[in-house]
């Protein structure tokens, strides 16, 4: 019954790992795109053998960035699919525990929304006076 705690740990580890890889990839992609845009701006309307080679290199760099991004997107889909399968298995093995967790999350969200609304009302009243 408590063996599923390992599944939750695995899900958390996979999610954290995916999040850090995603941030890393997005930073790399952002740098690559920025460098490519800088190069294209610097090239302007220039022509010639060296410029054409530079444009080809920039296009290749952008294609490489897109390929890496696509690979990470597939990896994210795989992790999401695995996580959904594990969650589904957990719910089938522990239906009442799943209901309790869902209800607890619902209460928590309701409390947070209520608190947020109270803060917003308090601010509005303070601004009105």
Summarize the structure.
The protein is built from three helices and no strands. It has 129 residues and is mainly alpha-helical.
What labels would you give this structure?
129 residues, mainly alpha, 2 domains, 3 helices, flat
Blueprint of the fold:
Layout: H1 4-43, H2 49-93, H3 95-128
Helix pairs in contact: 1-2, 2-3
Walkthrough of the structure:
The protein is mainly alpha-helical. It folds into two domains: about 5-95; about 95-129. It has three helices and no strands.
Structural class: mainly alpha
Low-confidence parts lasting 5 or more residues at pLDDT below 50?
A: none
Ends distance: 57 Å
Number of domains: 2
Biggest pleated sheet: none
- Mean pLDDT rating: 76
How many DSSP helices? 3
Taking all Cα atoms into account, the compactness measure Rg is 25 Å
